[in-house]
Amino acid sequence: MARSFVQLSFDERRVIARMYEKKISQAEIARTLHRDRSTICRELRRNFWHDREVPIAEGYWHITAHGMATDRRRRYRKLLRDPHLCAAVIDRLKDGWSPEQISGRLKLSSASSARLSHETIYQYIYSKEGQDQQLARHLPERRRKRRPRYARKPRSLVFPIECAIRNRPETINSRNEFGHWEADLMIFRKEHGAANIATVVERKSRYTVLFRNNDRRSKPIMSQLIRHLAPLPALARQSLTFDRGLEFVSWRELEHGMGTAAWFCDPQAPWQKGTVENTNKRVRRYLPPETIVLEVSSQEIRSLCDRLNDTPRKCLGFQTPKEMFSRHLLALEQ
């Protein structure tokens, strides 16, 4: 991946000024700063100080150059050059619109000829002017400082390649073996809080377990999974398949707690755990997105599990998941 361009810093401009004064070539300056030669050439051309009244004062001075570059960047900001557009954007931010929504709406508006990218809005929000107005607090995800695009920790360290679903054994993929589960979280309306419902489904029998979580922290979710599955025989809880959500980063507790292996879907590929996704659609008939989960009792959740597990399924030859699950458990005990 190509390195994204970063503006020259004050210290880099100081080095350029010293080396330029010593008549060192632009190529050598570029090598010293690990920059492209064109960057140095453009910097000297744009920020070279010209003084017709005092020709002896002409030259490249790092303090002057840094000030010129800063002023130019500020001058080029659309929102600073157009106070009416700036006021309109701020009003939309205060109404709860995201920068992308503001930008997209401007493109549809026939009354406005302004074109503004969401990146420009973000830059203004986190600029000195935007911070003085505390605009960041109106964003859906509030941060004091803007996080660099590639600053996230690589999830490959959390979800190693050897646990990727492409490496899952064929006996699990074909549903020939009992004891392999899929798990997911059902999320509800934000305004009702962070409570959610975990859905856990055995792949061969389609037997379903549901339980409520009061938030999306990973360790409590894993503890609940262990509490529900640990009483089963080891061969009835051999593996679990998850997506790569942050709520599953504590998956190693499953291995330590009950010796259950974990597999993970590819990024942005929830269809790879289709059994639990299909089950979620069935559960949504009784728990739609607007449900206030904290008002759903444990007894109601157990009753819903019983309803799902006592319903005949065509894929099981019209047997129920409970009948299939019980038969496999009995076979393990014998």
From TrEMBL:
| GO BP field | DNA integration; DNA recombination; transposition
Gene Ontology MF: a single term: transposase activity
This protein's GO cellular component annotations are: cytosol
Q: Name one Pfam family in it.
A: HTH_38
In its UniProt entry, what is this protein called?
Answer: IS30 family transposase
For this protein's source organism, the top of the classification is:
Bacteria, Pseudomonadati, Pseudomonadota, Alphaproteobacteria, Hyphomicrobiales
Record keywords:
DNA recombination
Q: Where is the Integrase catalytic domain?
A: 165-329
Q: Which domain of life is it from?
A: Bacteria
The record's annotation in InterPro entries points to:
Integrase_cat-core, IS30-like_HTH, RNaseH-like_sf, RNaseH_sf, Transposase-Integrase, Transposase_IS30-like
